[in-house]
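Troubleshooting: if your tokenizer reports a length mismatch, compare against these two reference records.
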Amino acid sequence: MKNKLLLGSLAAALLAGGFIATKTSAADDPQTPAPRGRIFQRIADKLDLTADQRAQIKTILAGEKGKLKPLIAGLHDARKNLRDAIRAQDASEASVRAAAARVAGVEADLAVERLQLFGKISPILTAEQRQKAADLQARADEFMDGAIARLGSGLDN
């Protein structure tokens, strides 16, 4: 359960990052979005967002960039510090628990930001689009459940 929550939070953070950064370099084809921008475009296409809806969502996300960027960076740093705590020569249960608690704190802050974003973006979507989004999330959850099961069965060998 914790892994699903963790992976879901990370996926949401990555999606939020993909929504925010949509610039292309001068060397790129102007019709081809940057890799992170492709995430937004794929989701927008799957939800059949109108041009107006896309513009509204991009405006909302651009307005939240100042909050999201440090949260995502903080999550990366906290996870890196947790890995370092686990691998430290003097690692202890207390040091690993403290590092894990910092990860959980950042994830909680990010979850609150996701709640606020959902509250702003959801009214822009039609009922059908909200259902499509829920279906996409359910499929992502099923994929993760399958991956976890495959990992578990692979460890049995």
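Reference record two:
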Amino acid sequence: MVDLFTEEIYKNVVEGNMELYKQFFSCDPNEEGTIEYWKNAIGLYNRLDDEGKQVLLSIIKSTIVDTISNVMAILDGSEGPEDISIKVQLNDHENDCELQDSFLAYAEDHEEE
């Protein structure tokens, strides 16, 4: 159950958001309605060579994976405030502090994608 959950998190959050970022960076920064933040981000992206663009996308992906990993650790109870008790159940099965490990293992298996 944990493996299915972490796979869905990876597909929806990591892969889904990476597709959104790639779409954003392919937009015309002068398109009407583009907010200033994205105008600046698209401008930066467009000034990079192909290798630089790949590095930037890798940084973004790594940031997403690291953030999810940290949230999973909090949900596991292995990180975060000690005075708060969190119990995560997946289909009525308790998680045994394995969300972060399962997610990181899945992410490592899909690094090249």
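Descriptive notes for reference record two:
- The radius of gyration is 17 Å.
- Residues 50-76 form the longest helix (27 residues).
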